[in-house]
Write a structure and sequence with these properties.
The complex is a heterodimer. Chain A has 5 helices and 11 strands. Chain A is of the alpha/beta class. Chain A has a 9-stranded mixed β-sheet with strand order 2-1-3-4-11-10-9-6-7, sandwiched between helices. Chain B is 31% helix and 31% strand. Chain B has a single domain, classed as Phosphoribosylformylglycinamidine synthase subunit PurS (Mth169, Chain: A, 2-Layer Sandwich). Classes of the chains: A alpha/beta, B alpha+beta. Chains A and B meet through loops of A and helix 1 of B.
């Protein structure tokens, strides 16, 4: 199992993803944003950071990097693609995922652990039972997910909403539980096929009990299990 | 060469946090007649390109059609 982690100018979480995946026992290598060859990789991760300084809009410039045409092709062929934080923003700009991520409602950069509820979804990156709660840090200024009403009902109907922000006890506040104001408390979504997954929280930061816990592990181990099943 | 001025604004119904904050701040300063503030982007572009090409630039990069509208004005010399 070999993960490829794309580095854009301004990415800053690529080392965390490399370390997390290697810690879990997988091969993992960097992919430069100018590269156009993804052969040899089983899954692609777009890491967090501030690609191209987040100029124009987060992810708007990164989406035109040479590597992205290949990432789109890889995803369209059913290859698993994960976008974390800035990676999620890039996936929406590249139209691999619907909607957009706007500035946090409270105008503040938010960096703290949040409680997430796993939803019933078609996502290939998550095999946790629906209702499972996980505590994973967020670290962003633009995590306020929006889409139009038609897209939202399609996301719900197709099982594309993978993670929602909830209160610590798993309940939902009437005013919404998303710290960033995200529509319908959405923290992560996938495409219809389930192979492309974007989320604002950083699971790569919680894979080692020595540094923060292990709640993020399933977001890397599930896809490996899934690919092994397909191969056998 | 042509000059264009492009105004990018959030679509109707998309919450604009900086605009809403400025609106509250103005009301707090005593400007009670303020009803709505929307904050967007202003882009000045000089290019050997016609209006259709500039629209394409907006659709592809300068604006996000999912959340934003844009208006292009041609600047007469």
């Amino acid at each position: 199992m070999r993960f490829g982690v794309v580095i854009f100018p301004g990415s800053n979480c690529e080392q965390d993803v490399i370390r997390a995946t290697r810690y879990l026992g997988y091969e993992s290598e960097y992919i430069w944003h100018g590269d156009t060859d993804l052969s040899g990789f089983d899954a692609i991760v777009l890491p967090g950071g501030f690609s191209y300084g987040d100029y124009i809009r987060c992810g708007a410039v990164a989406r035109f990097s040479p590597v992205m045409a290949e990432v789109v092709r890889f995803a369209e062929a059913g290859g698993p693609v994960l976008g974390i934080c800035n990676g999620f923003q890039i996936l929406t700009e590249a139209h691999l995922l619907p909607g957009a991520l706007l500035r946090n409602r409270g105008l503040k950069f938010i960096c703290k652990p949040v409680t997430l509820r796993v939803e019933e979804s078609v996502c290939q990156w998550v095999d946790l039972p629906a209702g499972t709660l996980r505590t994973i840090p967020i670290n962003h200024n633009e995590g306020n997910y929006v889409c139009d009403a038609e897209t939202l009902s399609a996301l719900n109907a197709n099982g594309q909403i993978v993670l929602r922000y909830v209160e610590q006890d798993g309940s939902t506040s009437p005013g919404g539980s998303a710290p960033n104001g995200a529509l319908d408390d959405i923290a992560g979504i996938c495409n219809e096929r389930g192979n492309v997954f974007g989320l604002m929280p950083h699971p790569e930061r919680v894979v080692d009990p020595l540094v923060g816990g292990t709640d993020g592990q399933p977001f890397f181990t599930s896809i490996v299990g899934r690919l092994a099943e397909v191969a056998s | 060469m042509a000059r264009y001025e492009i105004y990018v604004t959030y679509k109707k119904g998309i919450f604009d946090p900086p605009g809403a904050t400025a609106e509250r701040a103005l009301v707090n300063l005593g400007y009670e007649g303020v009803h709505e503030v929307k904050i967007g982007k202003y882009i000045r572009l000089e290019a050997d390109a016609d209006l259709a090409a500039v629209s394409e630039m907006c659709d592809k990069l300068l604006a996000n059609p999912v959340t934003e509208d844009y208006r292009i004005e041609t600047v007469e010399e």
